Amino acid sequence: MAQKKPFALRIDAELLEAVEKWAADEFRSTNGQLEWIISKALKDAKRLKVNKTPDQEQQRGEG
After folding, report:
1. Fewest 10 Å CB contacts: which of 3, 18, 57, 62?
2. Cβ 36 vs Cβ 44: under 8 Å
3. Does residue 18 fall inside a structural domain?
4. Quick check: 48 and 42 in contact, CB under 8 A?
5. CA 51/CA 17 separation, integer angstroms
6. In this structure, is residue 35 part of a structural domain?
7. 43 Rama class: left (phi>0) / alpha (psi -120 to 50) / beta
8. What is the DSSP letter of 48?
9. Is pTM, for the whole model, over 0.85?
10. What range defines the domain where residue 40 resides?
11. pLDDT value at position 2?
């Protein structure tokens, strides 16, 4: 597992409230939701290498 690094974030109160609601809907912590959002954005922009396990490839019909 990758090492986690603490990071302070200043965010608009309304934006944070929306993220907190989304996190609750997904049964994630706010921190976990923010990490997921950032990771997805980076992958979609092809700025982060996607490491797929054989199980994930098989589930998506890629293997």
Report:
1. 3
2. no
3. yes
4. yes
5. 31
6. yes
7. alpha
8. S
9. no
10. 12-44
11. 79
Read off the pLDDT band of 15 (50, 70, 90).
Answer: very high
32, 40 Cβ separation under 8 angstroms: no
Residue 36 lies in a domain: yes
Residue reference for tokens 């912590």: 29
The CA distance from 25 to 10, in Å, is: 23
Domain annotation covers residue 62: no
Tokens of 58: 């098989």
Residue type, 4: K
Instruction: Report the distance separating Cα 52 and Cα 32, nearest Å.
Output: 20
Tell me, what DSSP letter sits at residue 7? -
What's the total number of domains in the chain? 1
